[in-house]
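help with this.
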Amino acid sequence: MDLRLEKLELKVMSAEDQLDELNRIVWRQQQEIDLLRQHVRLLAEQLKSVQPGTPLRPEDEIPPHW
C-alpha cells in the first residue's frame, strides 16, 4: 500500500512539474504573439502611408527591362 501511494505521489509531482513548464511555455508564446501583433499593426500603418505606384527613392525603381 505504501509503495502504491509513493508511486502516485511521484506521478502527481511529475504532472505538476510538467504543468508548470507548459504554463511557462504558453506564457512566453503569448508574449511573442503580442509582440508580433504589434509589429504587424505598425507595418500595416506604414503600408497605408505609402503612396501606391510611386517609388520612395530613385534607386527603388525597377529598371524598365524587368
